[in-house]
Amino acid sequence: MEFGNLHQIEIREIWANEATKFTPWLAENIQLLGDELGLELELREREASVGDFSCDIHAVDLTKNREVVIENQLESTDHSHLGQLLTYAAGLEACVVVWIAKEIRDEHRAALDWLNRKTPPGLDFFAVVPEVFKIDESKPSVKLKLVVVPNEWRKEISSSELEDPSSRASMYKRFFQDIIDEARKIGFKGAKKALPQNWVRFSTPKSCIGIYVAFKRNSKISVEIYIESPSKDLNKRIYDELLKSSDEINKITNNNLTWERLDINKGSRIAYYLDGSIEGQPEDQDQLKTKTIEKLIEMREKLLSYIIDATEKTEQS
User: What would the pLDDT profile of 232-273 be if each residue is shown by its tens digit?
Assistant: First the structure.
């Protein structure tokens, strides 16, 4: 068998200009980057304004409803772009920060590694090098090479095969992966890969509204809409606006919803509660998964439009 010759191409041959060629391409193919990072990315805006500056790409991580900033360079990293990246992250309240460059200099790699070590969990810094290859005269193929990843991300990748399958964390992960797989078949977005935790979040057309499935105490599992903008005042006003339609909503949901304004908390919740434990028997787990999917569908079809309307009315008032 005869094989072709693999050779690497200078990235400027593919994208002659970072602003007019590479950034538009990445915006159109944002999930290629998301797949490499293990996130589900959705484009918010190109050239997003941050004071007198503009961020190359502003996106959202649908997996955890986190803001994402992406800064591109088709050259080696420099101090100026590091400063810009941190400015964009602060201005857009981003929790995922991605620096893409032709070469990540050692001092900048060390700086991002330091930030990953010293910042709180949930604030993640990545560095990525785009590489382009051809086999003989084939079409070019792009590889986004990870150079810097958060400590937790690396730990999860390296230890995934060492998890104790009988641990509670592993049971959560298996249960929610089944939920995610079924939910994605019927159009739910946001969650893609289950984590070893007792909840999962699906996205909605409004970033301040999430649909959650979560194990609670006292052998309960909730399927809930959670109002979670950064503003407590806005969350309570959205809830109060939705409450005006509670009689109609309760009627079409057979009075099975639990309404929780949660005055002390920042967010508010409207939930279905089902009986079920992560430690149940396999046949009970299968029934619980089926009921959970049914409630997710009911939540989306019967309640989501009401809360989107309430959110839009509140935001405009």
Answer: 999 999 999 999 999 999 999 998 999 999 998 889 999 999
Provide the CATH number for the domain around residue 135: 3.40.1350.10
Please tell me whether the overall predicted TM-score, pTM, comes out greater than 0.85 for this model.
no
**Considering 105, 126, 158, which residue would you say is the last residue of a domain?**
158
What is the Cα–Cα distance from 136 to 124, expressed in whole angstroms?
38
Classify residue 290: in a domain, yes or no. Answer: yes
One domain for residues 191 and 226:
yes
Helix H or strand E encompassing 246? helix 246-252
DSSP string, 158-169: HHGGG--TTSHH
* 9-44 burial code (b ≥16 CB/10 A, e <16): eebeeebeebeeebbebbbeebeebbebbebbbbbb
For 123, other C-beta atoms within 10 Å of its C-beta total: 16
The residue segments making up the domain with residue 21 are: 6-158
